[in-house]
Amino acid sequence: MSDAVVALIGEIAVTPTAVRTPAGEIPLAQSTWQVSDFWQTEQKTPTWAIWAAVLGFCVLTVLSLLFLLVKQTIYKGTVQVTVTNGPRQYVARIPVTTQEQVQQIHNQVNYVRSLAAL
């Protein structure tokens, strides 16, 4: 049952003996794993606030413009996972939108690191 996938990190599938990538297989034993976060945050006025300002402009001109001060933080980016074993290396870039997704990837990589050390 050594072909059963024990972890899936982006397009990287990990079995108890190998790391399967789109570029081919890499042995799991003695592999090294690196994780890098590349986050961007963006401040954006939500659509509902724009509509409230436009519709409220007819009723309460000045106060309705306060809706345009409402900001929403949007997180986006990628987590880069690199697996290396000898001369073989593969880099996966996984798109993320929440901190929970980033933490899940880190947890999976830590689990695979423990398997690789066995």
TrEMBL record:
The chain crosses the membrane at residues 48-70. It comes from the Bacteria. Keywords: Membrane, Transmembrane, Transmembrane helix. It comes from Phytohabitans flavus. This is Uncharacterized protein.
